[in-house]
Amino acid sequence: MQTVRLVSLQVLKGFAMLLILLASPAALAHKPSDSYLSLQVTETAIQGQWDIALRDLDYALGLDDNQDGAITWGELRAHHTEIAAYALARLALSADGEACTTAVLEHLVDDHSDGAYAVLRFSASCKAEPTVLSAHYRLFFDVDPQHRGLLRLEHAGQTRTAIFSAATPVQRFELAESDRLRQFIDYTAHGVWHIWIGFDHLLFLLSLLLPAVLLRVDGGWTGAARFRDALWEVVKVVSAFTLAHSITLTLAALDVVQLPSRWVESAIAASVIVAALNNLIVMAGASRWLFAFAFGLIHGFGFASVLADLGLPQNALLLALVAFNLGVEVGQLAIVALFLPLAWSVRNQWIYRRGVLAGGSLLVIATAGIWLVERVFDLKLIA
Q: How many CA atoms does the CB half-sphere of 5 hold within 13 Å?
């Protein structure tokens, strides 16, 4: 009995730490670090474009010279040479084992869904048209081991993708043949990764799942009596969320429906608030799946913005779309598989109802409230 009680306490501590980490404003003030690298391979050269977040470059190089919290074009232009040297020193391209010579041609700025990015347009000269292209990527790994480089490679009408990470800094491509299986795996991995680092999506889903192991009785919460009831509640919520975001993800990716990114991101923050508030002031009751479906339509547009940054290969549009969506679902199922057994094991503990459900929901509301104000008014409340 004592052993069971200790295990329950450890599980509850784990839930509490997870919610604190996910909902901590300091931890969530920034989107996880990504850069976007596009390469077009021709007979004579490799043309490239590299989009790197200004916030990441500022952290590494200190671009904000007057320390006013805003990077101006003048400040960025003054650091162009430094940025080019820093970036190109961390990207090595080789064709059939021979190093290619890389030079920056143009500096630009572009807006992504998560902020401003420096854009480096460059050219890489190789001794001959490559049949095997290798890319060694080391950007920011020394200052942020979680950083990822998202690569899109175009050659002979074919598009391939890959993810650079600290664990996989080198990617190698056989250009003579198209590998659809690898393309499918790459886009699936993009989907899994995005749901795992998409803190607003995670908090929305967890806020709806936290009461799944409980029943509302006489104005209070009590532990569910049967596991299958809790499982059915989880299935309804996850299925509704999946169906909804799949619809809008597809429509947006195919350019059938488009919404301004600022509206979408603001609505996603609002959806997190509503989902968490429902745990304190019950509005949906047993119909949480309706919340999941209604707001899932908005979250689908958020997923689509990630695909827009990655780029959808026109020669394999359906394959990439299906693979990315599958990755999102696999990521969700992994979260559910971890959440449900743990939540079920501690559902009857007072601290789960008051500490995790009530306290965690308040923390989520506070965090999402900060997001909402930042996104609606284009402010930065947390540095």
A: 3
Count Cβ atoms below 10 Å from residue 223 Cβ, excluding itself.
16
For residue 153, the surrounding DSSP H or E stretch is strand 148-155
Instruction: Name the strands in the sheet holding 148-155, side by side, starting at the edge strand that comes first in the sequence.
Output: 101-112, 115-125, 45-53, 34-41, 148-155, 158-164
Query: Residue 323: which of 183, 124, 143 has the closest Cα?
Result: 183
- The structure tokens listed for 133 are 């292209």
Which H or E run contains 61? helix 54-61
Distance CA 333, CA 339 (A): 10
CA distances, 242 to each of 199, 205, 239, 250 (Å) = 17, 11, 5, 12
Residue 46's SS3 state is: strand
- The residues facing 152 across adjacent strands are 38, 161
Phi first, then psi: give them for residue 273, nearest 5 degrees.
Answer: -60, -50
> φ and ψ at 99, to 5 degrees?
-65, 140
Q: How many CB atoms lie within 10 A of CB 251?
A: 16
**pLDDT score of 338 more than 80:** yes
pLDDT band at 119 (very low <50, low <70, confident <90, very high): very high
Tell me if the pTM is above 0.85: no
The packing angle between helices 199-209 and 261-277, to 10°, is: 30
Q: Any idea which residue has 């805003």 for tokens?
A: 70
User: In this model, does residue 244 exceed pLDDT 90?
Assistant: yes
